[in-house]
Amino acid sequence: MEFEAFLSHWQATKNVSPQTIRAYRSDLQFFEAFLQQEGTRGIEQVDHGVINKYIEYMKQMPNPRFGRTGLSDASISRRLASLSSYLEFTRATSNHQLHNPMLDFTRRWSKNDDPKPIEEVDLDRLLSGVTSLRDRFLLTLFVATGLRVSEMYQLNRDSITIEEEVGDIGDVRVLGTGEVIGKGNKKRRFFVDYETLRLYAEYMATRADETPALFLSERKQRMSVRAMEYTLAAWCRKLSLSHANVHRLRHSYATRLANANISSLILKDLMGHTSLSTTQRYFKLHDTTLARGYFSAMEFLRTGS
Question: Can you give the residue ranges of the Tyr recombinase domain (predicted)?
Answer without folding.
Answer: 113-295
